[in-house]
Amino acid sequence: MSQLWSWLLRPKASSNEATRASSGHFVAGEACLVELLANTAELVSFYDRNLRLTHHSANLKNIGGHAPATGIPVWEVYPSFLDSQLRAELDRVLRGAPPTNVELGDSQSQVQGSVFVFGAADGLAIIERTTERRKPSSVEMQERITLLHQASHDALTGLENRRRFSESLQRTLSGIDGSKEKAALLQIDLDDFKAVNDTLGHGAGDTLLQLVADRIRNELQEGEFAYRYAGDEFAVIQSGKEQPAEAERLAASLVDTLKAPFLINGIPVFIGASIGIAFGLEHGTESEQLMKAADIALYAAKRDGRGCARIFNRSMLLLLEQRENLRRSLRAALAHGELYLEYQPIFRPPSSVVGFEALLRWHHPEFGIIPPSVFIPIAEADGIMDHIGRWVLEQACRQARTWPSWMTVAVNLSPAQFLSGALTDTVAQVIDAVGIRADRLELEITETVLLEKTVDNLDTLNTLSVLGIRISLDDFGTRYSSLSYLKNFPFDTLKIDQYFIDDLETDQKSQAIVRSIIGLAHGLGMSVTAEGVETPGQASWLIEEDCDYLQGYLLGQPMAGEVTRDFIRRSAPTPVGTTGGRNRAM
């Protein structure tokens, strides 16, 4: 037996002599290992728990016939281990099984024969026994390397792929000593990626994914490996680190680097990333469990405003379960009469009520009032917003029939209602069925609608406009606020978001922004509605600046439909005429 073999199989320091004699674990120092590997004739290699090369003898070759690079996976030295059954032998040894002989290859394999596999410090070692390495032709070698890379890497970004991710995660979890170690899984989801794809095209989207992958790579340290999981989702497995500090450090650096602008075809593109973090074995002993925990944490990061990282905890699971309960309840809410509308008045200064905005509400029999910000995204994700939206439209139009004939009703449209392709037919059918004039209906959309299938949505809005229905752009100023929207889409009204109204009396910047929006809208023949008016000072400033319509708690809170007629009588409105066409009368 050679000096290297004698040294590798020396007993591990332990009080149990029987265990020491059979353990076969490498326990010598780094310097001694390097010296032996430099001078041995044996073909030996060492791998960590992720089966990546850490040390090797000087005469070992990779599949290309060159000295292997530290960090490559075991299958780039021994391609036969791409086979799941052979790789299972490595996993067994990593979990503490006795040393074993593994037969390699078939007639097509470059390396044939057998290797001896045994446990080593923080991983395993492989010594070739009776192997034969056939020297491949240059074409054969290139084909082998290409196939090997394609099987394990994402073609677009060059990161390891989902298959490799699943294998690595399970292997990492299998090798953890639960009493001492933690492995971290970071699930990364890009924010606003779909908007880039839709506005700049799929080519720009692909370029963006490549740039994202490069930035992720640049943030990685030893023991951290990145994968493209799916679409615009990435993952990082982190092992051998102090947790949770190291996972939090990496997540913060990833959020920061992905927040910086990307330059694509000369255009600065801004996205961001939300990250969910889970630890094995604390949050899962199997890969599926840990991935679910990380996904739940990722959902929490999205819910908390995106562009941040969250670590999984049990309360997140409870919130998710509650959300699922709400999802199931929402499907029956309409049939059970739990959904209803309230109406908030809209005023033309100084005191004439000219219409109402219909606001959807849900009274859950167990949980009470559920905010729209909670249940509307659920309805959109569950595919029932189109059904609910039709009901809202019909109820609002029927209520408007009880008001004076010059009053309007405003109804909010969800982006999900544009996806069905039947929105214009639905609106036309409701108007005909209820018997209300088209110019008494105003449909409110947000800029999110404009980012989804822009050409189709432009056609939809133009058709609605031709029908005589008024279109307003809600929450103007809080998102992209692109002037191209105002040029290309047929808006009658801009609604200034409450964010700019809150400090209107004291903040000069808010005053300048609101003044500019009013001037811009009037220059384009549009009217302006200020939302969230809550003080006399705000109302006075807006009236002085020629804002067309005011809406807010100062003027009137949302109310039940049966109350609106009494409110109209008390408000003594002044008729302002019909509202058809592109003008500043509502």
Describe what you observe in this structure.
Pfam families: EAL, GGDEF. Residues 181-314 form the GGDEF domain. This is Diguanylate cyclase/phosphodiesterase. The model is unreliable at 11-28 and 573-586 (pLDDT under 50). The chain is 42% helix and 22% strand. The chain is built from 22 helices and 23 strands. A hairpin with a 2-residue loop joins strand 4 (111-120) and strand 5. Helix 7 packs antiparallel against helix 8 (202-219), helix 8 runs antiparallel to helix 9 and helix 13 (385-400) packs parallel to helix 15 (423-434). The protein folds into three domains: 3-152, Beta-Lactamase (2-Layer Sandwich); 162-312, Alpha-Beta Plaits, CATH 3.30.70; 323-486 and 555-571, TIM Barrel (Alpha-Beta Barrel), CATH 3.20.20. The protein has 586 residues and is of the alpha/beta class. The strands form four sheets. Strands 14, 15, 16, 17, 18, 19, 20, 21, 22 and 23 form a ten-stranded mixed sheet that branches.
